[in-house]
Amino acid sequence: MSKFLYASIGRKFLMSVTGIFLLLFILVHLTINLLLIFDDSGALYNEGAHFMVTNPAIKIMEPILALGFLVHIIWSLLISWENYKARPVKYKKQDLSVASSWASRNMLILGALVFVFLVIHLANFWWKIKVSGHDLLNQGLEPGADMHNTYLLVSTLFKTSWFYSLLYILGGVLLGLHVTHGFWSAFQTIGFSNKVWLNRLQTVAKVYAVVVALGFAIIPLYFMIKF
Amino acid sequence: MADKILKKLYIEVWRQNNAKAKGKFETYTIENISTGTSFLEMLDILNNDLIEKGVDPIAFDHDCREGICGTCSLYINGRPHGPDSAVTTCQLHMRKFKDGDTITIEPWRAKAFPVIKDLVVNRSAFEQILQAGGFVSVNTGGVPDGNAILISHEDAEESMDAASCIGCGACVAACKNSSAMLFVSAKVSHLAKLPQGKVEAKARARNMVAKMDELGFGGCTNTQACEAECPKSISISNIARLNREYLSARFSE
Amino acid sequence: MQNLDSKIPAGPLAEKWSKHKAAIRVVSPANKRKLEVIVVGTGLGGASAAASLAELGYNVKAFCYQDSPRRAHSIAAQGGINAAKNYQNDNDSVYRLFYDTIKGGDYRAREANVYRLAEVSPNIIDQCVAQGVPFAREYGGLLDNRSFGGVLVSRTFYARGQTGQQLLLGAYQALNRQIAKGNVKMYTRHEMLDVVLIGGKARGIIARDLITGEIKRFGAHAVVVATGGYGNVFFLSTNAMGSNGSAAWQCYRKGAMFANPCFVQIHPTCIPVHGDQQSKLTLMSESLRNDGRVWVPKKKEDAQKLREGKIGPNDIAEEDRDFYLERRYPSYGNLVPRDVASRAAKERCDAGYGVNSEGKAVYLDFKYAIERLGRNVIEERYGNLFQMYEKITDQDPYKVPMQIYPAIHYSMGGTWVDYNLMTTVQGLYSIGEANFSDHGANRLGASALMQGLADGYFILPYTIGDYLAGEIMTPKTDINAPEFVEAEKKVTERIEKLFHIKGTKTVDYYHKKLGNIMWDFVGMSRNEEGLKKAIVMIRELREEFWKDVKVPGELNNLNPELEKAGRLADFFDIGELMALDALDRNESCGGHFREESVTEDGEALRNDEKYTYVSVWEHQGEGKEPVLHKEPLIFENIKLSQRSYK
To answer: Which residues does chain B have within 8 Å of residue C123's beta carbon, measured at their own beta carbons?
Structure first.
């Protein structure tokens, strides 16, 4: 099996499986996040966040998710390095725009940028919620409520910082670009594609990418505009 | 559609005397080329000039000059087989260029395709991949009647689509990863679509991919550049089929 | 003089091959392992032979000048492959295929060889299907057929317009399987430069490694030459740029006699020449004549306007179009054999009805087929050919009729072989287009693929056993034998001589000049005066070449100009022999048209009384006139008649 994971298709298989897993996670994450803009009191979002923190199934999934990210990232580096080595002398003049999309050629860069965003994102919220704690998390709650005011933490960031709001919009767009290619590519790699399905998958990929990019971008926008 | 004359062209070309020598670009000028001339005929004319001037002519691969043998290569102005779709270099005509253009010609670049001389590269890696399993194990004689094996029109056509690969290597040259997946998948698909080839389909996919990896080709990241630059427009749906065949072979081990 | 025994078995035609197979010797598996065979060339003949011999257990060394066996020019055959399967229930049979081939070859081929070819033809299809050749299929899953020039049945199997490619890839797959098993040692980018004889038997070859320039010796118990035809003597032809007659010519120099060199085929449907910078002619498959109608304008003034570009073909009214093939040959129409179609096109163009700027083109029009069948059907049948045509000419054949003109395509002539495919040198075999045996004076469409594969899969593997059975005690050939040393020395000297001339003119300059002489005097139409003139001109040009050619580059490196120079040096000799042969044969038959021998209405006139023989030329040494031997052709089963396609 270890040989399989280093064979060219095996490596890609791992990228693909972790990728599909992350695509599912993103959908769940987006759904919860959208609660931010449907209830300005924050109660709905806090309920959701509380559910995510306390649900045993999610608790089990959390380390798996982390592993998914880790494998996706490490294998992408491995694959990129192998692919880089396959052409020791580069072309002087290359005209790639006719034959392939920009996103498909720059998945590593897009992925790296998404990764940078992810680190900042984790520092902004996950770190504060899970590890360091933050004053805002305990404010404005009903007395005796056994949960954090995550809504306050998130909405305060977007209401007070143009920089972070724009960064989160950019993050959504970068993720969208990454999945325009990643979505159908993952299915192609596991063999779930043919002449008919290729077009369908590429269309679904575009829809998915737009939903993800718009969905994530709309949240900071909402707070910037409304408040 | 009458032919015009291109008064002057600048040809920037990779010169490398042998596999070990260090190469560099040289620029030559060429005059009065008809737009009805093929690209390789233009190189013939240039070579004729060079020979007369006492310069070593440019070595480039070519043979049938009708787009089927797969011998000609050339990375022209940043694209394998040059600025036209669904053609080999020998089918490319000078009407695709303008007077005064600089045309940059490079060899296929890939670790698995080392340069032999100038624009000629060694593509024997393709041979080795096919030798690893790109066949049906039948000897001459003792086979059933051709009509004893029924094959649907659609399967025969789809198999033929894949089988039309000419083994030129443009897919590798076009791919940012120098991946040979389109080439390998074309052979795997050609045979996997036919009942005769199904028998060994799993071993074939496994062995050919193992050989491909061993020879230093990159992996596929589904950029689709290979399909777009393939002179025979071979579809990446074949790569999906190869992935399917390979994965099912590995998981059934 | 050597023995010209064709070794045709006695007995009724239909039983000859089975009786012969039963009579010849067989090598035991244990002994096959000890025997080595060299196969030069990896087209349909060479690849199928190398693979089949290796499967039997022989140790095979295979050679090709290309970077892969798959690039041999068989790959370019478009239309299809004939086989007497009678799948269409149109009363086809082995006899009918045999009869069509003999008649199509204008009664200048051996009955026994042709019958055998027809007899094994069904096996070829079965073999190719088993290998995974994706032949076209009907909707019910059965194999599809199309019809081809010169016949009245549908017996041609095809894989779109890429049949040669698919058949070659099938043979190449079989070859690859044997290479992987270690039974075939493959030498790519190696060019055979001489055959080595020890004690009168072929024992090996000298080859040049085209990358390093190294001259190498290779030994074996038998040598098979499958190096194709010599059409490139004309410079412009449908052959690949590298196709050459040198391997066959080295065999000729070593005593393998050469048969019917003047029989070359001119293919009627090629894209016309434009300008003087052209390097190569592109064939449009003959299968196009199934659905395309050939015409020129009826009125000379229309032709004049077309040549000047004042009007287009679609401006010419229906009644002003001359469908000259349908007019002259009502029963075969556009499907007359190649030689007839070619000459008819030349006749119209010479009479002033040519339609392109040089007046050397006729129309092949698909308008009528598109009206009848719809564009989709035409696209499925010929899509890739139409695309190729458009890329080259920048014209859309779905809308504007194609322009076509005849071009040199195939050589029916070649090394003389007996029924076992052995040349006049013991242990030296010649198969496929390289030999002369099956097509007479004209080859029918879709028969070259059939012959190459018949020789390689089903004939040579049997007949070579008969010879090798006598060689089982012969030890491995010693490549340090004086004969090898001498051959290598000669090869090296010749290369160095060519290289050191350092004259003023390029190889192509001479090749184009030779091509012009050949096309003008030894081309589609020949006469005594012209042929005599051509012989003198070729000799003069050859002399000039050996004094003034300029070969650049290095000896010990990849050097395409040096390769071309060596091949051209042989083309001068081949061209001269073609002219000599054409001069001897004062009759018109098949692709050989002598202006002195025509009927009253200008059709070719054969002279069976005087010329029912194979012309077999024997080399007498450099600078000496070759000697002509005649192998009489005996027709026991077919009555000779003047070919008529009316």
So the answer is: 141
